[in-house]
Amino acid sequence: MTDISTHILDQRMRSPVYNASGVMCRETTELEAVRHSDAGALVSKSCTLEARDGNPEPRYAATPFGSINSMGLPNHGYRYYLDYAAHYDYTDKPLFISISGLSLADNLHMLDAFQRLKRPLLPEVNLSCPNVPGKPQLGYSFDDMATALTAIHAAMDIPFGVKLPPYFDISHFEMAAEIFNRFERLKFLTCINSIGNGLVVDTDSETVLIKPKNGLGGIGGDYVLPTALANVNTFYRLCPDKQIIGCGGVGAGEQVFQHILCGASAVQVGTRLWEEGAGLFTRLNQELVAIMQRKGYQCLADFRGKLRTL
Ligand code: ERO
Fold first, then answer.
1. What is the model's pTM?
2. Residue 170, by phi and psi: left (phi above 0), alpha (psi -120 to 50) or beta?
3. Closest C-alpha to ligand 1, atom 3
4. Which of 57, 253, 259, 301 is deepest in the core (most CB within 10 A)?
């Protein structure tokens, strides 16, 4: 028997794959569809204090190699997800709650409400939304990120994680890792959010594909796989006490395998889930099992983090 189960903290996942925040998770019906699928966990849409409609449409487009989005954080407001979390059956599969307040005070307010539920939910604080005009990505401002994490860590009794933007320079990886390693209850790092502020152009019409921000948006899908793997593997090496959750460029079991080989304990899927729907998870699990059987691996620990260098 090939075992593809994994753990985030002490919570067991029957499969390492689940949705990336933003895809199939704004409505409770969507969250329930992921819960009833072969995903190993689920994460809710990043929430704000108050409900938001998000940016004007069109704000998502599929492209030949992935996707571009500038959704602008459309969500029902944190109370909607708080209610879902309050009634969730935690014996089924882990529930991650994504938090993306427009200020540190908003984040602290929402995190307090979620931890007061006294349920085993896993907060994922989004430090990397690229699409809210006038709000820079916190993950790129190291001093502000350290200030925010200091306050969040002091306020949190329960373990939590962060969703990170992609980093591209070794000095930035090292500076970010040094900050994360200061915080004991910061237990997992999700790498990566979409690559912010890309531009996809349609040659025939000579236009951008999405309306907000003159067409700039977060890039996901095949384009981002090497960047995602670099972030997973580098933080796996630099933050040995944290768990890494991979995200980016997953379309088949092979990319799930690669994320885990680079050190991921679990793997999120965004663009491909948007395009294919929740049946995707059954396929990814089957493809991952086939690769493991071909290689003679019986469980994920047999190859997790064992990427070889030359
Ligand atoms: O526009 C969004 O709602 C959005 N899109 C992303 O690619 N990443 C995000 O983190 C995000 C909002 C929090």
1. 0.99
2. alpha
3. 73
4. 259
